[in-house]
Amino acid sequence: MSTGFSPYQLPAEYSEIRSATRDVCDAGVAPHAAEADEAASFPTASYEALRSADLHAPHLPAEYGGAGIDALGTAIVIEEVARACASSSLIPAVNKLGTLPLLLDASDALKERYLPPVASGEAMFSYCLSEPEAGSDAASMRTRAERDGDTWVLDGVKRWITNAGVSGYYTVFAVTDPQAGSRGISAFVVEKDDQGVSFGAPEKKLGVKGSPTAEVYFDSVRLPADRLIGEEGQGFSLAMRTLDHTRVTIAAQALGIAQGALDAARAYAAEREQFGKPIASFQAVQFMLADAAMKISAARELTYAAAAKSERGDADLTYFGAAAKCFASDAAMEVTTDMVQVFGGYGYTRDFPVERMMRDAKITQIYEGTNQIQRIVMARELLKGRAF
Predict the structure, then answer these.
(1) Which of 267, 255, 250, 231 is nearest to 343 (CA)?
(2) 298-329 pLDDT, tens per residue?
(3) 368 is catalytic
(4) Tell me, what's the pLDDT at 5?
(5) Which one of 215, 355, 368, 381 is the catalytic residue?
(6) Which residues pair with 151 in a beta bridge?
(7) pLDDT of residue 8
């Protein structure tokens, strides 16, 4: 089935990335999507399928053993995986989220130590920013890292951590200077097996159930000084710069979920008969399909534009990353809800995938900054003259 079209002709390499990813997902990801959701278990078979095709962390540069796919190509990979299984799309998305702080600011030694295992698929990387009392207000975090000679001692808790307990490595943001506000936050690499690291019970979620989400606890975790990412006190700035880029991946995930729902509904509408004819012949259904396609087309153009800006590091990336994430996730929620309606009563059952896609779509409006926060970000950039 088609993924829609673009009025802009992308270079052939991106069509090849899409085609190759779709083949892998059709054979090795989609068949496990319903099971991962039903069992609320990490989709190991899907991970292995993505790993075998170098699609589990496609953004990592070739110098670290990665596929070296750029930001637009990575967005297309995530879009195609999400079309098959939103939970599985969090494998490449969160590997990018967790490793991007290293790519942006880490020493060569730190990158050479931690990026090759992710590129090979031996480990995944998660991102630890949010806390029980610090969600949208991330700068109010309480996790502390105190210097002790040539080590740091880390104490605190992080919440809503995607793939917690499965990932081998974690980018953790902690307060190193309580008097300096957001300028007193630093970033560290923490390993799953570091003494004092533990995990809470998996959250019981509405959607993306195949991607575990849990708290991560740090009880006097002693870290070598060289685990610091970048400069001390630059962690919060690094966290925000990271999100500028990775909000594009959430836009791509939302886009893929919406496309998967439209594809399923279009096929169903062509086959399902009522009043002696396929329901696709009725204008009410046609309008829902047309509206869905229109929203997806618009979301795709904005997402791809933001991905290109991410690759180039454009000055207006903050605005476009927020805009793409906000628009695509709102569109995904609207599209999946309407596609459930196309299926009628069957859409409300687990016999068809659209109810899962509707549940999965909701989180894209929430994580990596709620869409209310995205609108604040966009307005701030607009009013400061950094957009348009």
Answers:
(1) 267
(2) 999 999 999 999 999 999 999 999 999 999 99
(3) yes
(4) 45
(5) 368
(6) 148, 224
(7) 56
Nearest to 102 by CA among 141, 44, 145, 63: 63
Listed as own residue / partner, the contacts of 336-341 with beta carbons closer than 8 Å and 24 or more positions apart are 336/257, 336/258, 336/261, 336/360, 336/361, 338/265, 338/288, 338/291, 338/292, 339/261, 339/262, 339/264, 339/265, 339/288, 339/292, 340/261, 341/288
Phi, psi of 276, rounded to the nearest 5 degrees? 80, 10
274 is written with which tokens? 């009522």
Per-residue 3-state assignment (H helix, E strand, C coil) for the chain: CCCCCCCCCCCHHHHHHHHHHHHHHHHHCHHHHHHHHHHCCCCHHHHHHHHHCCCCCCCCCHHHCCCCCCHHHHHHHHHHHHHHCHHHHHHHHHHHHHHHHHHHHCCHHHHHHHHHHHHHCCCCEEEECCECCECCCHHHCCCEEEEECCEEEEEEEEEEEECCCCCCEEEEEEECCHHHHHHHEEEEEEECCCCCEEECCCCCCCCCCCCCEEEEEEEEEEEEHHHEECCCCCHHHHHHHHHHHHHHHHHHHHHHHHHHHHHHHHHHHHHCEECCEEHHHCHHHHHHHHHHHHHHHHHHHHHHHHHHHHHHCCCCHHHHHHHHHHHHHHHHHHHHHHHHHHHHHHHHCCCCCHHHHHHHHHHCCCCCCCHHHHHHHHHHHHHCCCCC
Taking 50 as the pLDDT cut, the residues of the chain under it are: 1-7
